[in-house]
From TrEMBL:
It comes from the Bacteria. Keywords: Signal. Residues 1-22 form the signal peptide. This is Uncharacterized protein.
Amino acid sequence: MKKLCTAFGVLAFQLSSASAFAQVATVYSGDNGSGTAVQLYSQGTYAMDSGCGPVLGLGASNVLGFRPRFIQLADGYQAKLQGWHGNPGDTHCAGPSYSQVPITCTNSKNLYDAGCISSWVYDNVGGAVIIEKVPTPQTDSSVLATVYSGDNFSGKAVAIRSLGAYAMDSACGPALGLGASNVLGFRPRSILLAGGRQVKLQGWHGNPGDTHCAGPSYSLVPSTCVNSKNLYDAGCMSGWVYDNVGGAVLVE
């Protein structure tokens, strides 16, 4: 009961003290947006376990008091679970390990559902939820590309740190042998790209062997169409390709 009261106390505090700020996330203790709900109005670290708050140097307004099962995120933000992953230096509350919550596992799925967070991590992690803005190549040198679902770098966003294929269509992930961390779940409309990298759209182009998810065809995104333009603008992708391709973004 103490944890339940703590969570409601946090909610009341945050609603009364931060109502003037945009909401960046809501975390729930139950499945499908049920149970105790805590609204977060700023990025940062929020302890799941009340005992981890002091260990992490967090005040009462940054202690959830429960392990979230469902998270709603505002556009342009991402969530991580920090704590025990069984790697050197990990503790129940902190350590160097974290699990990125795939964008396809926020707003519509529970965190422990298939393809989301490892069930072992979910069952054992007790540290913190980290809410942060999705980084870009301009703000984090380890990011190779940041892809957006909306025009002019708006909407849902995913930071890509490794070369390879990233499925646009969730159904194409398994078809291409990609795990949850390589599924965007949307067709990008704008891309920020690091210097020295290029991006292609793979999938249906109407050529022999093409399928919705893959095939021999791809379209190279012109360098003039990243960092400043939307992918479907004049001189960028063929409108037919952009409307029909559902396969993958290739960062190389």
